[in-house]
Amino acid sequence: MYRRDLQQRLLEKRFLDRPLYCDAWARPPKAHPQKVSWVKNAWMISGVFMLFFPSLAMISAITLFTAFVSFSILDETP
Fold first, then answer.
1. Please, what's the b/e burial string for 2-33 (b: 16 or more CB within 10 A of its CB; e: otherwise)?
2. Is 66 within 8 Å of 42 (Cβ atoms)?
3. How far is CA 35 from CA 5, 62, 67, 68, in A?
4. Are 36 and 74 in contact (CB under 8 A)?
5. What secondary structure does DSSP assign to 2-55, as a single string?
6. pLDDT of residue 61
7. What is the mean pLDDT of residues 73-78?
8. How far is CA 25 from the centre of its chain?
9. I need a surface site. Which of 2, 5, 32, 60 has the fewest CB within 10 A?
10. Could you read off the pLDDT of 10-59 as tens digits, one per residue?
């Protein structure tokens, strides 16, 4: 009985001190579909460049650069 009360108090203390609203639960902004479209086009263009330059070093560099650009575009900060 005491153990259960202790667990309940710990849970209440842990979760009631935090706000009930979290930014991660918010809907994405209206510009999000346009950003996704840009990222999709960037990956398609990168794929074409990878076909033109089929060396492992170039494919790795293009992939890393495109991944960086994709994360930068899709970042949710204003």
1. eeeeeeeeeeeeeeeeeeeeeeeeeeeeeeee
2. yes
3. 49, 20, 14, 14
4. yes
5. HHHHHHHHHHHHHHHSS-S--GGGSPPPTTHHHHHHHHHHHHHHHHHHHHHS--
6. 96
7. 74
8. 13
9. 2
10. 666 555 555 555 555 566 667 778 888 999 999 999 999 999 999 999 99
Residue corresponding to tokens 């005491």:
2
Q: What CA–CA distance (Å, rounded) separates 33 from 45? A: 18
Residues in CB range of 46: below 8 A, 6 or more apart: 62, 63, 65, 66
State the Cα–Cα distance between residues 36 and 43, nearest whole angstrom. Answer: 11
Are 53 and 59 in contact by the 8 Å Cβ rule? The answer is yes
